[in-house]
TrEMBL record, chain A:
<keyword id="KW-0444">Lipid biosynthesis</keyword>
<dbReference type="GO" id="GO:0009245">
    <property type="term" value="P:lipid A biosynthetic process"/>
</dbReference>
<feature type="transmembrane region" description="Helical">
    <location>
        <begin position="54"/>
        <end position="73"/>
    </location>
</feature>
<dbReference type="GO" id="GO:0005886">
    <property type="term" value="C:plasma membrane"/>
</dbReference>
<keyword id="KW-0448">Lipopolysaccharide biosynthesis</keyword>
<dbReference type="Pfam" id="PF00892">
    <property type="entry name" value="EamA"/>
</dbReference>
<keyword id="KW-1003">Cell membrane</keyword>
<keyword id="KW-0443">Lipid metabolism</keyword>
<feature type="transmembrane region" description="Helical">
    <location>
        <begin position="107"/>
        <end position="125"/>
    </location>
</feature>
<keyword id="KW-0997">Cell inner membrane</keyword>
<keyword id="KW-0472">Membrane</keyword>
<dbReference type="InterPro" id="IPR000620">
    <property type="entry name" value="EamA_dom"/>
</dbReference>
<dbReference type="InterPro" id="IPR000390">
    <property type="entry name" value="Small_drug/metabolite_transptr"/>
</dbReference>
<protein>
    <submittedName>
        <fullName>EamA family transporter</fullName>
    </submittedName>
</protein>
<dbReference type="InterPro" id="IPR037185">
    <property type="entry name" value="EmrE-like"/>
</dbReference>
<dbReference type="GO" id="GO:0022857">
    <property type="term" value="F:transmembrane transporter activity"/>
</dbReference>
<keyword id="KW-0812">Transmembrane</keyword>
Amino acid sequence: MSGSGRTWRFYLCGFLLLLAFDTIVQLSFKNTGVHAFPPEANWAWVQRVFGHPWIYIALAAYLGNFFTWMSLLKHAPIGPAFAATHLDVVTVMFASAWIFHEALTPMRLLGAGVIVLGIVCLAFAESGAHPENDAPTEAKGALGVTAGS
Amino acid sequence: MTPLVATLWLVSVSLETGGQLLLKRAASDPLAGDGAARWRYMASRPWMWLGILTYVVKILFWIAFLSLVDLSEGVLLSSINIVVIMVAGWLLFREKLTPLRVAGILLVSTGVAIVGLGA
């Protein structure tokens, strides 16, 4: 079925884009905090926050994240999709180790491995093996949506 | 965990779930159409705005929660969101819970919890 193949490619591109935006958001917020250090409950701190480009990069990525997420949710089931977004925990972990020299403890690496394993399961779950589970049929539900025409 | 921390946590989980369900409701509306018209349609209906509002309120509760616990503990406790949203999607949107989907979702949730434990 070419339809399910297209759906799968759409999910892949969408989730990779979302992952990139998510990672940029987290790293940019961290960088914002670093440049505005030390945190203070005053106007000077707010000025430091908005005085560096990082906060604007973070907000732009947040916006990109929102539009990508809303596009994915048109068809993607919310349960598996929300779980899949947590791949950003893994990318942020490695990016933080590289950029900010944060520790990669054995526990964190184990957690990252389990997350990746879960994402692989979700990818297989949505692959062509189960086209009957593809999302368009799931756009109807108890919140008052009925599949039109 | 003090009653205040527990309350902030439960409110955060509820708001996160509610916000995601509202966004899903907005995004999957079959009457919305495609392209720019879809965005105009979503902007003209309350669901997306309610979802965004719920998210903003959630962030306030989350910040309050994080000020009382370590970030790693916050990550650990937030892993429950994934399971709650899976169940909510099944109940409200009739999403099929195939064995592979459930396995994947539980693994991701467990992995996030382990990352929280391992900090």
